[in-house]
Amino acid sequence: MSTPPDGLPVYRVLTGPDDERFCRRVSEALALGYELHEGPAVTFNGENVIVAQAVVWPEGR
C-alpha cells in the first residue's frame, strides 16, 4: 500500500465550522486522492454548525 503525500496519515478527521474554509479542506483532501469515509457528523454548538468528516487513503493507491 502506498502512503499519502507529504507524510500525511492514512486516516484523517477534518473538523470545523460548516463554512467555505471547511469545504475547501475536504475538497483539497479529495484532490490529493483521499476518499470520504461514511457521511459527515454534524452538531450545533449554540452559535455555529460544526462538521466532522473522516477521509481515508485508499488501499492499493
TrEMBL record:
Q: Which domain of life is it from?
A: Bacteria
The record lists the organism as Glycomyces endophyticus
| DUF1737 domain ranges (all copies) | 10-56
Report what the protein is called. DUF1737 domain-containing protein
